[in-house]
């Protein structure tokens, strides 16, 4: 039996979500249609919008449903840049490519906010940079994640957004890895835009949402009909939206259970470090998502670890799923300034809402056995 430990890439769909979506898929009706069937579909969308608003402390009218996290981030950045008079973008060194690549593609100057040795940005850097901001720089746009998708570290969003607002700028927060795993309060974070994606907390793939504050600029990124109050064209994915809202309801209602995964994460880390004293637990000591463990075994490439564990029946990753299969690998090693051997040895183990304690124990046994097989080669190359 395989054991899935790559829940940060995508997690299992919750049974309640399957039931809710199956029910929706037995019905017919385009929510843009004015007849009874269309209006019934629209009613389900609006119920979902209220559910998401309640779960994330946002007004329902400030929520735009999208095809996923990447579209939501692109829409937010496009809206801020085109409508906010932005002159320069600040991104953290560990941002997902949906942010980093979009910022570079904008043609605006991009500055990188570095992280410390634990993988967390330090607010003093931003305060100092903004103290030197001048009119020639234009308005700042800050794009930062609430929780790292690779090592789970939590970033000081609520401390950063007031600084950006005082400087006359806007902020985009990527909460895709955080929503449904920790408490996410859109109003409390003080950001202008926030994004989520259903498949990270037990919903279906291919549906997400953008939350935009009432005074945030909005501009559609592609054109078509007038759906979502003209903010995002395209026929709404009714079943997917219902699935997203159902999953978020269930996830937010069981945050205490999810928090308990930290015990299994820490047990894994301690057991693995007992086997290999050279093993680096990245982000240890920093506030983290309870389910995420970033590890680096110097000299044992992450891609090789992933293959060895896959053959043993375990799914883990060597970084973001969106960059797997490329030569880029994980951004964490570069961002943290790790030595080359440690940077290349990075893997991510991520538990999920349906993980069992035995999964952690089984992984320790399998990883240790794989390390024992490769150890002669590691010693020879040292």
Short description:
With 382 residues, the protein is of the alpha/beta class. The protein has 14 helices and twelve strands. Strand 5 (139-145), helix 6 and strand 6 (170-174) form a beta-alpha-beta unit.
List keywords for this structure.
alpha/beta, Aspartate Aminotransferase, domain 2, 7-stranded mixed beta sheet, 12 strands
How would you sum up this structure, described in words?
The chain has 382 residues and is α/β, with parallel strands linked by helices. It has two domains: 128 residues, Alpha-Beta Complex (Aspartate Aminotransferase, domain 1), CATH 3.90.1150; 239 residues, Aspartate Aminotransferase, domain 2 (3-Layer(aba) Sandwich). Helices cover 42% and strands 14% of the residues. The chain contains 14 helices and twelve strands. It has a seven-stranded mixed sheet, sandwiched between helices. The protein has a three-stranded antiparallel sheet with strand order 9-10-12. Strands 1-11 form a two-stranded parallel sheet. Helix 7 links the parallel strand 6 and strand 7. Helix 1 packs antiparallel against helix 8 and helix 2 packs parallel to helix 8.
Topology:
Blueprint: E1 3-4, H1 15-25, H2 36-56, E2 63-66, H3 69-83, E3 86-92, H4 97-105, E4 110-113, H5 123-131, E5 139-145, H6 157-166, E6 170-174, H7 186-189, E7 193-197, E8 208-212, H8 238-253, H9 255-259, H10 261-275, E9 280-282, E10 292-296, H11 302-311, E11 314-315, H12 332-336, H13 340-344, E12 346-350, H14 357-381
Helix pairs in contact: 1-8, 2-8, 3-4, 5-6, 10-14
